[in-house]
Specification:
Length: 172
């Protein structure tokens, strides 16, 4: 993965990318953020739910229709997630209080193939603000790698690996 990812994009894609970064309060491309800035601690993740996955993915009907989402377990993105091809998820907080989460996603079971690098930006309350991936489809904000990353985050919240579930709240 090139450190100069943003600089190597075509001009119009580069402009769209800058707008996206501004939207989430980043002045530097996530691909340039130093490794030690990223945190491996699901306890700090936002309260991301299935409805957030659903809303984000159907917003881009070129790939996922509402009908396709009804049957989401058959989607390639979901297969990537359940096959374990989404690696460890790391996150960082932006200056505007949003969260950027990223993970490498292997394209298949073959170890020799290079992973893709999706990232997603979430509000603290859950909804997706923006997403990106370095694959060709990822430029348009929806590819199966982004979808797979969203499914993994959603599952972690649902299974109680984060602090944003009801099981973690003090008893009242
Ligand atoms: Zn991708």
């Amino acid at each position: 993965m090139s450190y100069q990812y943003q600089e190597n994009l075509a001009l119009d894609a580069q402009q769209r990318y800058s707008v996206k970064l501004k939207l989430i309060g980043l002045d530097i491309c996530p691909y340039k953020v130093p490794a030690d800035t990223w945190i491996n601690d699901p306890k700090q993740w936002p309260a991301f739910e299935y409805q957030d996955v659903f809303h984000y993915l159907i917003k881009h009907p070129r790939i996922y229709s509402a009908e396709a989402m009804e049957n989401y377990r058959s989607l390639e993105a979901h297969t990537f997630f359940v096959s374990g091809w989404v690696q460890t998820v790391f996150h960082m907080k932006t200056d505007s209080g949003h969260y950027v989460l990223k993970a490498d996603v292997k394209p298949s079971w073959r170890v020799t193939e290079k992973p893709h690098h999706p990232w997603v930006a979430l509000k603290k309350s859950g909804p997706v603000i923006a997403a990106h991936c370095n694959c060709m489809a990822g430029l348009g904000e929806t590819c199966s790698h982004i979808g797979a990353l969203l499914f993994k985050i959603e599952a972690a919240v649902r299974l109680g690996y984060t602090s944003s579930t009801c099981t973690d709240r003090p008893c009242e």
